[in-house]
Structures are given as C-alpha cells and as structure tokens.
Write a structure and sequence with these properties.
The chain is α+β, with helices and mostly antiparallel strands. The protein is built from eight helices and eight strands. It starts with a helix and ends in a 20-residue tail after the last helix.
Length: 244
C-alpha cells in the first residue's frame, strides 16, 4: 500500500512538471486544472467559458475505437435537442461502419442497441452529407446528421475552414477524431498519446468554432420550428451502413 502511494506521488509530481504549461494556460483562461487521483490524467473545467461552460479531460480512452489515451471535451450549450450532427475522420467512419454492421448481422439484431455509442448508431440511422463545399472536407472527413440540410448548415462555413486547416497537421489523415453535436452540447474526442499545449489549444479552438456554428444553426432552427429526427429508425441486416 505504501509502495503504491509513493509511486502515485512520484507520477503526480512528474506529470505536474510536464503539464505545467497546460495548467498555466488553463488558469489564464479562468479555468481550474486538476490531476486525476492516480496522477495519470488531468481535468480542466471552465464554468464561465464562451460560448458555453467547457470541460477538457485527458486520460485513458473511454471508447474502444480510440486505443490508449484520448483528449475529450464538452461544451455545454443548451441547444435544440433536434440539433444532432457529427463529423469524424473518414478512416474511422469506415471502420465503425464495418464494426456495427458485422456486430448486428452476426447476432441477427434488427435495431441499433441503445447501449451502442451514438458515434456508431448515428452512422446507421442518419443520412450522410456528401456535398460539403470543401473538397478536402469531403475527402478527409465523414459527415452525418439528422437531416442533410441541417448538417450542411453546420459544416459549411467557418467550421469547414477550421477542419481544412486541422487536416494539415493537427488531425493528419487516419488520425481518430470525432466531433458531435448532441443532447444540446458539443463533444470532441481524439486519440492523443501525450498532451501538449499547442495541440490542446488548437483542439479547443476547433471545439469553440463548432459551438459557435451550432449556435448560428440553432437560431435558425428556433425560427423555423422542429426538424424531423430519426432516433427511432429501425434497420435490417440488408440495410448496410453506408447506404442509408
């Protein structure tokens, strides 16, 4: 027990020094920075962030499709519940499509189980948006949403520009990455073996851009009334993901 406590103390101390630039940056934004109990990860919380309260975590991945460690973020927005959209690395999209199709055909299930992460369920239930204005966005990312019109309104514009820029170095081809608008909030997940300040800052800017664009679409949504949702859409093994 004592040996474990000493080991945790050493890890915490070493990581505190390594993550000092991230901690100082967080504090400069008015956010709190804390390490996890075992010192192997960290949490940044900024209740008064704009455009919404923000939470940034780095640690062991909570998704099987992100091996090792991940950076995950949430921006609380209070958006219309019908605003459901997702953009992800195209290679990851293709892998998840194969996985969900094989899982459900093998077990002869005909509905998407609610225990399956939204990232996988949405690829089955929601239409793909293949008409992004940017050719790079079309080539490097997969985009889906509750309706193509709503998805296009979110992705085309400032968010598209930031995604194109990110594809050059921040999110190289094949690097697992998911950005979602759901449950009224904006979420981001990406594989990250070791956190460093420039990448954390860049991904926060990406999240903030997605949140601002979601606010713009949300205002339009409020003016035009509810959009149809497809959360109860059923599918059969003959409906292969990717053709929905």
């Amino acid at each position: 027990m004592v040996v474990k406590q000493v080991k945790n103390w050493l890890v915490t101390r070493a990581n505190a020094a390594r993550w000092r630039p991230i901690e100082e940056w967080a504090e400069s934004r008015g956010a709190s920075f804390s390490q996890t109990r075992d010192g192997s990860g960290f949490l940044i919380e900024q209740p008064k962030a704009q455009p919404g309260p923000m939470r940034v975590e780095w640690g062991v991945s909570q998704r099987s499709y992100l091996p090792g460690t991940e950076l995950r973020m949430r921006c609380e927005m209070g958006l219309h519940p019908d605003l459901q959209t997702m953009v992800l690395c195209r290679a990851l999209m293709e892998n998840l499509e194969r996985a969900v199709f094989e899982a459900y055909t093998d077990t002869l299930k005909t509905r998407v189980d609610t225990d399956t992460p939204e990232e996988m369920r949405w690829l089955v239930m929601f239409p793909k948006f293949n008409n992004a204005a940017s050719q790079i966005v079309r080539q490097r990312y997969g985009v889906v949403g509750v309706t193509k019109e709503l998805t296009g309104a979110w992705i085309d514009g400032e968010l598209s520009e930031v995604l194109v820029q990110a594809s050059q170095d921040l999110l190289p081809e094949g690097h697992p990455f998911v950005l979602m608008c759901m449950r009224g909030n904006i979420y981001l997940r990406t594989e990250m073996a070791e956190p460093d300040l420039p990448r954390v800052q860049a991904l926060v800017r990406l999240l903030e851009t997605a949140a601002r664009e979601a606010l713009r679409v949300n205002a339009r949504l409020a003016d035009s009334g509810a959009w149809p949702t497809t959360t109860s859409v059923a599918w059969t093994p003959s409906t292969r993901p990717g053709n929905v």
